[in-house]
Amino acid sequence: GAGVSQSPSNKVTEKGKDVELRCDPISGHTALYWYRQRLGQGLEFLIYFQGNSAPDKSGLPSDRFSAERTGESVSTLTIQRTQQEDSAVYLCASSNLAGEPGVAYEQYFGPGTRLTVT
Amino acid sequence: GDSVTQMEGPVTLSEEAFLTINCTYTATGYPSLFWYVQYPGEGLQLLLKATKADDKGSNKGFEATYRKETTSFHLEKGSVQVSDSAVYFCALSELGTGGFKTIFGAGTRLFVKA
Question: Do A50 and B46 touch (CB under 8 A)?
Fold first, then answer.
């Protein structure tokens, strides 16, 4: 298991339903990020987990969005009462922040979950 | 807050042309800077990075120099190939109260014609 994995790869849901997206980071990576990428657009930061620190939730677009992470392992992003504007690719990335102090390291991205809300 | 601005696309070039994709940033401290690339049908992957002023990142013939005085990190390649067609994202990562948070630019789509 070398890379970041996400499941499902595709999800079609009806408006108003809840969905749960899963991310398995690279083993040993302390940082985990969720992004949203709408069609033809850039990455929109959603939430960031770093070790045991409180997550940075500043990017979550509404209270319908929430995320959890179990220790330094799996994370789930939950969208409640989905709306059509939630349709996008949801990307997860992980990073190992060990090494030279004060220097950010690259993020490794998963393949994404394509969410379609009908 | 921190931000990244990159040139709008799409950029269309002929094979062997010179490429520049401009990227400027605003940050309160001393961020690390990155270029990520997303090839058609693939996930994002790191292209190159620089962690301090005047550092030059390079990979696959692409280069970018961390210019603190102009807050820029422009991506260049001397001779593009059709296989370079992709979306390129400039990003910065800076240490905040909760750790490193990364801000991405909007992306620049590059088309290279044979």
Answer: no
